[in-house]
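Deliverable D5.2: sample structural annotation.
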Amino acid sequence: MSSTYPYANRFPVNRSMPEQGRSPEELLEELQQMAAEEDAVWETGKISGSYYCGDHDHYDVVNRAFSLFGHVNALQRDVCPSGTKFEGEIIAMTLDMLHADAVADGEPVGMVTSGGTGSIAHAMLAYRENAKETRGISTPNVVKPETAHPAFDKACHLFGIELRVVPVEATTATVDPAEMAARVDDNTVAMIGSACNYGYGTIDPIEALSDLAVERGVGLHVDGCLGGFILPWGEELGWDVPVFDFRLPGVTTMSADTHKYGYGLKGTSVLALRDKALRNSQYFYLTDWTGGKYCSPGMDGSRSLGLLAATWASMVKMGRQGYLDKAREIFTAADEMKAAVRTHPQLRIIGEPTFCFSFTSDEFDIYHVNDFMKLRGWRFNGQQYPNAIHMAVTGPQTRPGVTNEFATDLAEAVAYAAEKGDEPAGSAAVYGGVTGGLTDEADEFIKAVMGDMMDAQQAVPPKD
């Protein structure tokens, strides 16, 4: 059986449209079996990221909210005005969390997008269009730290924006504002800072970048896709989280994913903007189409109102106290796991991370540690240049005994890695995880793995 199709020998395979539909009872039973088996993996608490809440009772509430509105098109607000309530309140609650009340030089607004990549792409489009309208810039550029998410590269590629990438400091894994300043010129429409970056969980010096943005008259997008819905609560609880939001005058846009630590269903994020003029710049209008006057506030057309309902339900159900309680548990678990890493002199945590941390080794290939930990059921996310593995701590890691089990397994993994010495490891870095594979050159391996993943999305299951 091909590992790409693990259910091929257990359930019916559709290689063409079935002539007759299956009974609801049969297909729901099939789905229930797959869901139960796959949930059992993350319920161990050994999976980095991905399952941010980890509470089935919470999932039941947001799934029920989705089911009430999943069939509704969010475009049709005259028929279903609940969409305006849900979306408006999601944005308002997010702006409140990000201290938009501190803004005195604009009218803070937002938009709900399809995810972090969507929020980032809409921000880059807004900067491009606004700079064209207000500054006459026809050849825009954006300056980002190398640790900022690849979604910025994707957006700049799609929108014809030059992307200037700045190396980060090796010890801190954060960007030097002076290096950012050196890349800014008259055609720069925005700079990027991460709070926190995906790879290392470190927070760029946003305050210094804010000062630079004000001085040079350019936008500053703070990417809080990962940290936006947990860092504010960590700061309030007393963890060492620097100010990174709209309290800083140079911060003009922020992305924060409701489908991560906002604990909504996958498929939503919020792009928050300091002023509505910037948001309005990326609206699309077509007034003379035969189908009627067309106006789109974002790149998506039809959207399921179910996702808005589920996101709204998640945020209102949690409330400030719920988010604070969850953040306390997650930050505490992260501190315990980082402490376990620091007990091993062979390991080194990169920079000064918070709830998401990355570690490497100067004595052996860190992927040997990953190889061993995989045998114990752990799934980390991988980095390269240097090789490293990270853990984005989420709800499942706060379950009793998980951090102790991490410490025990890690100790054995370090001993295993030390024995392996210079032997090639069996793992490599692929975004979203650390995957096992051959010991060929890393770039060729990654290309092959990504090619297999793309093929698997498009292909039908093999007959044998």
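Annotation notes: Residues 178 and 338 are 30 Å apart (CA to CA). Confidence is low (pLDDT under 50) at residues 436-442.
The annotation will be released with the project's public dataset once the embargo ends.
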